[in-house]
Amino acid sequence: MSVIRNAELVPAPARRNFATLFSNVSRWRVPLSILALCILPWVLPSQALAVNVLIYGLVAVGYNLLFGYTGLLSFGHAAFFGAGAYATGIAIGAFGLHWFIAMLIGVLVSGLLATVMGVLAIRTRGIYFSMVTLALAQLVYYAALQASSWTGGENGLRGFTVSTLHLPGFSVNFLDPLVKYYAIMIVVAAALWFVSRVLSSPFGAVIEAIRENETRARACGYDVERTKLLSFILSGILCGLAGTLSAMHLSIVPLDSLHYHTSGLIVMMTLLGGAGSFFGPFIGALAFLSMEDIFSLWTSNWQLIVGVIFILFVLYLPKGIWGTLISWGKSR
Amino acid sequence: MTVQLIAMQLFSGLALGAVLIMVALGLSIIFGMLGIVNFAHGALFMVGAYAGLYVAGLTGSFWWALLIAPVMIGLFGMLIERFLIRPLYGRSPDDPLLLTFGLGYVLVEAVRIFFGTDGIPFSTPGALRGVVNLGIGFFPLYRLFVIGVVVAVLLLLWIGLEKTKFGLIVRAGSADPLIMRVLGVDISRLWLVVFGIGVGITALGGVLAAPMRNVSPEMGTLVLAEAFVVTVIGGMGSLPGAVIAGLIVGVSVSMTSLFAPEMATIVMFALMALILLVRPNGLYGRAAPGL
Amino acid sequence: MTNEIEKLALRPIGRRAALIGLAGVAGTLSMPWIARAQAETIRIGFPTPLTGPFAAEANDQVRSAQLAVKLANDKGGIAGRKVELLVRDDKLNAGEAATRTLELIEKDKVHAVVGALSSAVQLAVNEVTRARSMLYISISQSDTINEIKDFSPYTFHEALNPTMTTAVVAKHSFKKGSKVAYLVADYAYGHEMLRGFKRAAKEIGAQTVSEILHPFGAADYSTFIPTILASGADILCICNFGRDQANSIKQAVDFGVKDQMKIVVPVLLHNQRLAVDPEVFEGVTGGANYYWGLEETVPSAKAFNDAFRAMYKGTIPTDYGAYGYTGVASLLMAIEKAGGTEPQKVIAALEALKYDIAKGEQSYRKCDHQSMQSVLVLESKAKKAMKSDADLFKIVAAEPASESVLRTCSELGFKS
Questions:
Q1: What is the residue range of C310's domain?
Q2: Enclosing H/E stretch for C376
Q3: What average pLDDT is seen over chain C?
Q4: Angle, helices C94-106/C119-131, rounded to nearest 10 degrees
Q5: Which residue from C5, C21, C150 is facing A178, i.e. has the nearest CB?
Q6: How many domains does chain C have?
Q7: Average pLDDT in the B254-265 region?
Q8: Are C223 and C351 members of one domain?
Q9: Which residues numbered 263-282 in B keep a CB inside 8 Å of some CB on C?
Q10: Band of the pLDDT at C37, cuts 50, 70, 90?
């Protein structure tokens, strides 16, 4: 399993064509992702859906850093997604700040929250880690529900619609769906490049070492706690960034974005695409959201189909869509 | 605020604790014995309530529902173990958790298809209606009955686990499955039965809750959260832990209801976060397996 | 699940994404559409929570809205154009609703949006339509939408709001000197109901003896009840909604609350009442926008019921269903009057509209676009008093439309 998960990072000797193909895909992963993202709004049923794929793809990529690469199953990542969204919305709506500053604030707030939650949560292990993250995220949810003069409570946060993006020298119409898509895509592409750099850095190797064998990583002299915390914070920041983009996209922040259903959704998307691989989470978000979009037009029982597909994946394709493709390619 | 009110609030808290123990028991058993985090717990609880509704509709009696529905759903649980969970043994402990997460979706949706999206009435059985004067205030007879059932189930579980040969094998099996296999015990059959019992008790909780909370496809969502809080605070897999945690949570919720009622739900999660930070494995838990 | 909904949900999928995208690049999204606007079908987007705890209400909304569309098409369309309803599942989630509304506007090119059931969803749709100058008829009960902060000149609020329902319910259930205890869900809608009741109580001279906020979506209410019983109240106002309402009333009744006090709620829902035993709800009083029994006294209710029965095999419309009908029908009347879908003209027509299509005279107030309409006070019947399965409530009062039950325009922040 570990060999397969590492496949993209450490290209195996290219014996056959498929293996070469996959190692090439891996080497060019950032340009390839950006190319794929460029054509996304033209192939999906709607641009609004395409933007959601960008946003949840980024959430899943961020989550994957912790779940797929570091091996920590968090059930509280909705907190970072929501915190980023709320902070951005409040910065624009209540303080009238420029959207760019507001986005920075969103990322900063989610990073701070991730630091606090990370420090508390990494003291626990296994299922208890999942439960502590869940409990802390629930506290954030209730805090947002109670602080309704800031957050709008159950009604959600409103009143910060950004209709024009003012950039130095020019401005664009952010209500135009395609403009909005490509503007958000630029941010997501930059984040993907960042994640790619992190994964190929020594830090990337250490988190995988922790996932594979924590005791051995410790014995090798790595500071396991600090590495875990750093991975937790990075992952939280990426989810927070996605949250700020979501606020800009929808021009509202629903309270549901903090709910543990959102955390569950993030886990499902990551697993569906393939945890521990670079492309996997994005493909998972794409597959999940497209399924939901299409099935919910056919039937109001779409959750049944989604649930069955998820079960089948856990049973038969635990490496997810992309992970399975890779190992299939390798075996050729 | 009178002494009488505070006493009554304390009693309500203990009674709520009994309800919470009942809600959490199935989750705790399955984790304690098999190490499986059952995210479909809430959905199975709800399915149990619907099974109770179905049996009560057929037989016209709550008592048959209380008896038959848990057995039905327990058998259904065995099917789940055999065909969905068993292939995952030996894999990452996250896998059963994720599978049952998906199973929860499927069960809720299946119930919506067969029984409709609306809630369905579930009457309190005639013999258990009305209130009882406790001296400090009035309390519904039905809730007192629930406390009785919970005590009985706990007693049966304790006898079953501590005083019978079956219980001995189960405990040994959960402590070291490999040795048991070497000794020639058919572990997989044992786990099938334990999973079935866990799910059956979950379903019993559903039937018992139905006359208090009404029956609807979404009734399991909150239950899952409640059950996790109680189980985690007690220490996952510890029965005495679940009992004590249930009572602590019940009384905390009740006292919060008196002084800051809007905080009555969040106090559960705050308590859970707090206890886990002081005792990372819960009150009576052993270290987490696997990871 | 009814098949009609699935069918109508199936219809409007078109894979014209690429074409629409090209139009977007040209930056002239709306231009080519104006040229051939007259012959074009009038498309109405309809987000509603087909999945989740209010699926029954959502299905009723869809059926009633579909009826309004059918009646319009049967008489040859509106301003010579066919009408089409595009139903989308908002999943009771504001984020989902915002996405669906964006899709309806950007991809499906709807001319107006009608719908939403929860307050959060309604405000999300309102935010999206406001920024894009899109007509929106909201059919969710909320006070927030009336206030100036969320006001959109393109939005009309067809549903009742908590101020109206509580004012009328209190008028028919509170007396001078009544001692009232409140059990309130701790979120905006709950607080709005509480505010409305207390405002009415002050006028009537009723006294508040206890006020308990419970967490939104709680499953167990047993720990709140001792305080209520100890308060010595003679009326218990339960200010929550849906499943919370069903659970809290059930548990309060288990504790014998009804032996000591009368239970009053701001809104009684047809479908939620069906989900609980009649004896639990027996004697509970609450408000409603519509009840089919209104047909005995109001001719337009009779006509609406009959049309509904004819289309849906003898079944009757429910409260939230009626919103779907009055929301879509009033919009279509205004489009007819305006002679097309040009938003400014439709707004003017809606502001001037007087309509009686299901429940007596209605009209939209100019400042906040709130529909002034009759409010019913219902009392839940005992099982033995029910003549049929649908005979759930007794109409205690049908208060005709009046501005006096609303907050004034200046209270809401509008300059008069």
A1: 3-160+297-372
A2: strand C375-380
A3: 90
A4: 30
A5: C21
A6: 2
A7: 90
A8: no
A9: 263-266
A10: very low
Give CA–CA dist C93/A45, Å, rounded: 20
Give the ipTM of the model, two decimals please. Answer: 0.90
CA distance C170 to C192: 14
Does A264 touch chain C if contact means CB atoms closer than 8 Å?
A: no
Is C71 in the same domain as C142?
yes
Looking at chain A, which residue has its C-alpha nearest residue B106? A304
Q: Is residue C211 one of the residues assigned to a domain?
A: yes
pLDDT at C23 over 60: no
Which contacts (CB < 8 Å, 24+ apart) does range C383-391 have? C383/C278, C383/C279, C383/C282, C386/C278, C390/C292, C390/C316, C391/C293
Q: Looking at the structure, tell me whether residues C387 and C270 fall in a common domain.
A: yes
Q: What is the pTM of this model?
A: 0.90
Q: Which chain A residue is nearest to residue C108, measuring alpha carbons? A: A46
- In 3D space, the residue among B282, B260, B185, B257 whose CA is nearest the CA of residue B15 turns out to be B257
Indicate yes or no: CB of A300 within 8 angstroms of CB of C5: yes
C-alpha C303/C-alpha C26 separation (Å) is 49
User: Does the pLDDT of residue C374 top 60, yes or no?
Assistant: yes
pLDDT for B278 beyond 70:
yes
Q: Residue C358 pLDDT more than 90?
A: yes
Nearest by CB: C102 against A48, A148, A158 = A48
Residues C207 and C301 in one domain: no
Please indicate whether, in this complex, the C-beta atoms of C9 and A298 are within 8 angstroms of each other.
yes
Residue B202's nearest CA partner among B18, B44, B53, B78 is B44
Tell me how far apart the alpha carbons of residues A121 and A137 are, in angstroms, rounded to a whole number. 11
Contact residues, chain C, for B2 at CB < 8 Å: 230
pLDDT digits (tens, 9 = 90+) for C306-334: 999 999 999 999 999 999 999 999 999 99
Q: Which stretches of chain A drop beneath a pLDDT of 70?
A: 1-19, 332
8 A C-beta contact, residue B276 and residue B228: no
First to last CA, chain A: 17
Q: Rounded to an integer, what distance in angstroms lies between the CA atom of residue B7 and that of residue B163?
A: 37
A119 interfacial to chain B (CB closer than 8 Å)? no
Name the closest residue on chain B to residue A144, using Cα atoms.
Answer: B266
List Cβ neighbours of B149 (8 Å cut-off, separation of 6 or more). Answer: B22, B204, B208
**For the stretch B93-130, what's the b/e string if a residue is b when 16 or more beta carbons lie within 10 angstroms of its beta carbon?**
bbbbbbbbbbbbbbbbbbbbeebebbbbbbebbeebee
* C195 and C129 in a common domain: no
| Residue C235: HSE in the Cβ half-sphere, 13 Å Cα cutoff | 24
Q: Kind of pairing, strands C112-115 and C42-48? A: parallel
Q: In the 3-class helix/strand/coil scheme, how is A242-290 assigned residue by residue?
A: HHHHHHHHHCCECHHHHCHHHHHHHHHHHHHHCCCCCCHHHHHHHHHHH
What is the residue whose two structure tokens read 């866990």? B198
Answer whether residue C327 is part of any domain: yes
Q: pLDDT-based confidence at C39, cuts 50/70/90?
A: low
* Centroid of chain to Cα C367: 20
